Amino acid sequence: MKEITNSLAVSMELNEAVEHLQDLVTEVEKGDYAPEGEYCYATALRHIYEHLNRSFHFADMEQTRIEEISQESFEELSDTLPTFLLPLREAKSIKSE
């Protein structure tokens, strides 16, 4: 398993994920989320996953490297599942209906 050598980056991303998850739980409990659009349930979940993905990928990255990362690389790391989660990719076509 990956060693955490950049606890600052990991804790920042995890704290952001927790904050957004708490907000989402509140919205779901109130029934106050849109089924579509910029602030929909799926978009909120995706944003949380992006923080979780970055927390994993940043764990062993030097802070200076993170600060200098290109927008393209940042987005790629945000969208890339950690390798131990790759079997989840195979389920991407599952419908919830």
Total number of helices: 4
**Gap between N and C termini:** 36 Å
The count of domains is 1
Helix-strand string = HHHH
Mean pLDDT: 85
Estimate the global geometry from the Cα principal axes.
elongated
- Strand content range: under 5%
Fraction of residues in H or I helices = 55-70%
Biggest β-sheet, characterized? Answer: none
**Low-confidence blocks of residues:** none
Radius of gyration from CA coordinates: 15 Å
Q: Helix- and strand-based class?
A: mainly alpha
E-strand count:
0
Feature tags:
elongated, 59% helix, 97 residues, single chain, mainly alpha
Protein architecture, described:
The chain is mainly α and 97 residues long. It has one domain (7-91). The protein contains 4 helices and no strands. Helix 1 runs antiparallel to helix 2 and helix 2 crosses helix 4. The protein is elongated. The model has no long low-confidence stretch (mean pLDDT 85).
List the helices and strands and how they pair.
Elements: H1 7-30, H2 41-58, H3 63-68, H4 71-79
Summary?
The chain has 97 residues and is mainly alpha-helical. It has helices spanning 7-30, 41-58, 63-68, 71-79.
